[in-house]
Amino acid sequence: MELRQAIGNRRSIRFLLPHKPVEREKIQCMLEAARIASHWGNMNSLRALVIERDQAPQDVLDALPSPVGGYQIRLAPVVIAWYIETEATDHAGERLRQLVDCGAVGYGDKKRDELENTLVPMFAQMGDVVKQPGLGEIDCGQGIAQATLMAFELGLGTCCLGTGNPEAVRQKLGLPDTCRLLVTQTVGYPAETPEAGGQRPRRPFEELFQLNGYDNPFPRDAAVVEQLERDGLIQQPAPLPWRETELLYLRRALDLTGQGLL
Ligand SMILES: Cc1cc2nc3c(=O)[nH]c(=O)nc-3n(C[C@H](O)[C@H](O)[C@H](O)COP(=O)(O)O)c2cc1C
Description:
By secondary structure, this protein is of the alpha+beta class. The protein has a single domain (3-197), classed as NADH Oxidase (3-Layer(aba) Sandwich), CATH 3.40.109.10. It is 41% helix and 11% strand. It has eleven helices and four strands; from the N terminus they run ααβααβαααβαβααα. The protein has a four-stranded antiparallel sheet with strand order 1-2-4-3, with helices on both faces. The longest helix has 19 residues, at 135-153. The two termini are 31 Å apart. Bound molecules: flavin mononucleotide. Flavin mononucleotide binds next to strand 3.
């Protein structure tokens, strides 16, 4: 499948087949995709704890947060707890040297000297500021996005879940206190149709992006939109006419009656 179609077809899938296990190889593919995502300074601060519902100890399962419409964790054969290891920035010098040595940045005989005299001291001076929420989280988001697209390509459905108290979940999962829990992501085979009700609404394009100045919305070219519709990146908006019937079906099939947000 083309990248454009993959981006267009991906949805957050909340309804998963609870009885169909996810192959560990597929989870590994997700992790491999996350690992090679771009990170500032090549810091690689994204980490993940993979939790298999049928294998993990009960205390680990109990640590998982119960999100809005708490059925999602219950249905998911696998949950990935994505977190950031803030200590990764302590190795900035080493990671930057690797970037120079592999030819990604710099050129000529002096490239290593320049690195030692400029970039490495600059990163060292920034100290703990770089451990605060900011660039690191952006890196991690890129990794999680790549894993999400990989999951989609492998026929899996995923949904990221936030939690009101990530620190409590971090502690219960036994993650070091240098880490911050970012998001948990349910993974499984979709119980929903691939359209999952249609493409979810977004704020208007012009409201989100500017060109050459804050007061100037980026002009949205209708011809480009038409091309992207043909390519499958922009799709029929939700809700498709039969979505409510599908939701009723899912609710019965997965025994979710009595759950609030359905
Ligand atoms: C970081 C993050 C946290 C999210 N947290 C939740 C959540 O707690 N519960 C939930 O049902 N969906 C959650 N979502 C999914 C969004 O609500 C979803 O993006 C939205 O429904 C749009 O649907 P789409 O992903 O299918 O385009 C989260 C998504 C992201 C990226």
